[in-house]
Structures are given as structure tokens and as C-alpha cells.
Design goal:
The protein is built from twelve helices and 14 strands. By secondary structure, the protein is of the alpha/beta class. Strands 3-4-5-6-9-10-11-12-13-14 form a ten-stranded mixed β-sheet. Strands 1-2 form a two-stranded parallel ribbon. Strands 7-8 form a two-stranded antiparallel ribbon. It starts with 9 loop residues before the first strand and ends in a 22-residue tail after the last strand. Bound molecules: S-adenosyl-L-homocysteine and iron/sulfur cluster. The site of S-adenosyl-L-homocysteine has 17 residues, from strand 10 and strand 12.
């Protein structure tokens, strides 16, 4: 029988099932209790241990006394004209975080964009999150909590969650342990049951972090925010380039592609008159030609107080055509949710300021 009583209640939400299994073993219970409990919470939305009818009564009693399942609270829900939905979530310490649901019914894709941190240390000039500074890391409980809330919303609209992208607030590779723990819950068949290819991490390119994903054995898709074809221009837009120049992570691109058996994506946010000329396109071709990677062009979404503009659509198409003509796979991402400040780079949990 279980001997321990904890002073602080043990968090059971958003914890990898294998970790939970070890925990139950450590308190003298069966390892498979973890799987049973995960099924109750993620598949049946049951959080009251007394209702977990396949658990022994003594364990149900113990859980009621000693365990907790912490979910964020939805404080605001904003719906865009284009279908995107932004959730403003309040965490247990009162901090606020944003999560965005991006429906794409034509392609039967229902994507949730998750935050990994509150704020961000890297201060990219064009990013609302970067401009708010860094507040703290999110725990796997808080990351999975975002997904759980969005997943249920999607389900209530008669659809099914298909993809998760770490493109919300924060730099996932700067909080990698918690991000990987959260991904384990997403991939588990007693968690969210997503495939490796359904989860994507977007990063500014932190070499140690990329190596660490490889060591973990998990295989999320990888996107690297390139945004400029050379270090000098990139550093003007993304100061972290001084610490992590392109050459520090570029060799990891073929390595990661081979490891994950998927091409890497280079995100390239386009700014009018800054990085959108054919000279830039040509430099970009030279930089990445031959790599197992494609380019995703993202017209800049405007952020208050930033003196940058998106290019005309014509310029974006011209840039794309140049890449395609030179053998680079290139797509354009027109962001959804601009009218609710839910598009790429616009998340800043504004109510913090209110
Ligand atoms: N920190 C990670 C993930 C979050 S940002 C990263 O930087 O990759 C996700 C994507 O949004 C990145 O590709 C980033 O370059 C892009 N982005 C940031 N601000 C943007 C803006 N104002 N308009 C368009 N894209 C933006
Ligand atoms: Fe941080 Fe990414 Fe925004 Fe840069 S673009 S400030 S790395 S969240």
C-alpha cells in the first residue's frame, strides 16, 4: 500500500506517462496505473480520482488527497474572421500566455500553435514576444495544458486536432527539457496520440539544442528562422545571431534531416526593402542549395512600435519564383489571425499590460 503523503500535492497533468509510471512504482503502486490515469484525463476528461473506476479504491483515496491536475484558465477567447482562435490563458501564478488554433479545413488540418515561454530572451526586432522581454519558462504541465484546452475546443467544433507547432511565445530550444517532456505526452497513445511528424519545433537555431533533440530520440519536425541570408543582416534583425551565427548550426541541418527523415524548413520573414530583393534571394540560394531543406516565406505581420513593413505581394511572389527557378522548394505562408493579433510574431499576452 502507498506509504507516502506529500506535503505539496503531486502534479499529474502534463507529465510523460513513463515518468508517471516510475513515480507510481516509487510509491509502491503498479507502473501501469500511469497509463490508466492518463487515459482518464486526456481521453475521457475525467479529473476526479473517485470517478476513475478501474483504479483500486485505496489509490483513488490517495490521489484525492495527494494529487493534483492543473489546467490553465481561459480568460479570453478571440475569434478571427479567418477562423483562427486565440486563447488567453491564465496560469496558476497569474502569468498569462497565448495559444492559437489555426484551422485549415480545405487541407483537413487543425493546427495548434503553442507557447514555450512567457516572453523571450532573444529580442528579435520584429517580434512582439521578443519586445516584451523574458518572464519565465513554461512547465510541461503548462504546455500540455494549452494543447488540452485547444484540443477540446477543436473537438467541440466537430473537428480533430492534427498538428502542433511550437511557434507561439518563446524559444522552444531555450526551454527544451520541458518542451520534450510535453512532446512525450503528445506522442503517447495514452496522451494525445499524435505522430512525430505532426509536431514541429521552430527555433532561431541553437546548436546544442538541436543536438539534444537528436539525443532524446524524439523526432519532431524542425523549422529554423533564418530571415536573412548572411550574419550581418540577420544580426540586425535577430541579435542572437552574434551568439549563434549561421555557421554554428547550418551543418546540423543535413544531420537533423537524416535523423528525422524529414526535410528541415527555413522560415524567412520578409520585410519591405530589407531582405526581399533578388540579390537576397540569390544569396539565399547560394547558402542553402543542396541542403535537405525548403523555404517558407512569411510576409511580416505588423507589430506596434516596429518600424518595418511587409513587402507587396508582388515582391514576395517574385522572390518565391526566383527560389523555385533555382531549384529551391519554397512556399508562402499567409498568416491567419492578424485581426486578433494572433499571427506569427504578434503574441504578447497583451492583457498583462492592461
Ligand atoms: N522562437 C522561435 C519560435 C517562435 S516565433 C523562433 O523564432 O523560431 C515563430 C516564427 O514567427 C519565427 O519563424 C519568427 O521568425 C516568426 N515571426 C516572428 N515575428 C514575426 C512577425 N512579426 N511577422 C511574421 N513572422 C514573425
Ligand atoms: Fe524569441 Fe522567436 Fe520572437 Fe525571436 S522570433 S524574439 S526567438 S519568439
Amino acid at each position: 500500500m502507498i506509504k507516502i503523503a506529500t506535503n505539496e500535492k503531486k502534479e499529474l497533468f502534463g507529465i510523460p506517462p513513463d515518468e508517471l509510471g516510475h513515480f507510481f512504482e516509487s510509491i509502491g503502486e503498479k507502473r501501469f496505473r500511469a497509463k490508466q490515469i492518463c487515459k482518464w484525463i486526456y481521453s475521457h476528461d475525467v479529473f476526479d480520482p473517485m470517478a476513475m473506476t478501474d483504479l483500486p479504491m485505496a489509490l483513488r483515496d490517495w490521489l484525492s488527497e495527494n494529487a493534483k491536475f492543473t489546467l490553465p484558465e481561459v480568460v479570453e477567447l478571440a475569434k478571427s474572421e479567418d477562423g483562427a482562435v486565440k486563447f488567453l490563458l491564465k496560469l496558476s501564478d497569474g502569468e498569462l500566455v497565448e495559444t492559437v488554433y489555426i484551422p485549415n479545413p480545405e487541407q483537413k488540418r487543425h493546427t495548434v500553435c503553442l507557447s514555450s515561454q512567457i516572453g523571450c530572451k532573444f529580442g528579435c526586432r520584429f517580434c512582439a514576444t521578443g519586445r516584451m522581454g523574458f518572464r519565465r519558462n513554461l512547465s510541461s504541465t503548462e504546455i500540455v495544458g494549452q494543447l488540452y484546452i485547444a484540443r477540446n475546443y477543436i473537438r467541440d467544433t466537430g473537428n480533430q486536432l492534427t498538428n502542433v507547432v511550437f511557434m507561439g511565445m518563446g524559444e522552444p530550444l531555450d526551454n527544451l527539457d520541458e518542451v520534450l517532456r510535453a512532446i512525450k505526452v503528445m506522442l503517447s497513445d495514452v496522451g494525445f496520440g499524435l505522430g512525430h511528424r505532426r509536431v514541429l519545433i521552430s527555433t532561431i537555431g541553437i546548436p546544442d539544442g538541436i543536438e539534444k533533440i537528436i539525443e532524446s530520440g524524439l523526432k519532431p519536425k524542425l523549422a529554423i528562422s533564418l530571415n536573412a541570408p548572411d550574419d550581418q543582416l540577420r544580426a540586425e534583425l535577430m541579435p542572437a545571431t552574434k551568439k549563434y551565427p549561421i555557421s554554428s548550426w547550418l551543418p546540423l541541418v543535413p544531420k537533423y534531416a537524416e535523423y528525422s527523415r524529414r526535410w528541415v524548413t527555413f522560415e524567412y520573414v520578409m520585410f519591405d526593402g530589407i531582405n526581399d530583393s533578388l540579390i537576397h534571394a540569390n544569396e539565399l540560394v547560394k547558402l542553402i542549395k543542396g541542403l535537405p531543406a525548403k523555404v517558407n516565406l512569411i510576409p511580416y505581420n505588423e507589430v506596434d512600435g516596429v518600424d518595418l513593413k511587409p513587402p507587396d505581394r508582388r515582391m514576395v511572389l517574385r522572390f518565391q519564383s526566383y527560389l523555385l527557378a533555382n531549384g529551391i522548394v519554397a512556399t508562402i505562408r499567409y498568416s491567419k489571425g492578424k485581426d486578433i493579433s494572433g499571427a506569427c510574431g504578434q503574441l504578447a499576452a497583451k492583457s498583462v499590460m492592461k
